[in-house]
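Section: protein folds

Sequence with per-residue tokens
===
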Amino acid sequence: MAATSPFRIMLTMRIHPGREAEFEQTWLNIGDGITSHPANLGQWLVRSEDELGTYFIISDWVDEASFREFELSEGHLTHRKILHPLRASGTMATGSVLAHLVGTASQPVPAAG
């Protein structure tokens, strides 16, 4: 049986002005509510360099069905309730990862011998 490709969630969140540091700390404090889920492969928080108060959250899952199950869970609803007061707006895009090209800087350096 072939392995399925990861299912990726890409959120764009715009945070109320002046609450960026609070958002970042809150996101870190509650992040294990997502990463502790057995189907979660990891998540990343990225602060936009182009638009003040804008963040991108990337989260990878073993498959779409597992993410959709989590999305409807009580844990996810609690997570959203905590972040919602900090958020001015947000959008979500989803997709399956088709390819991953590893960059040279990510390659292990061979031991000197």
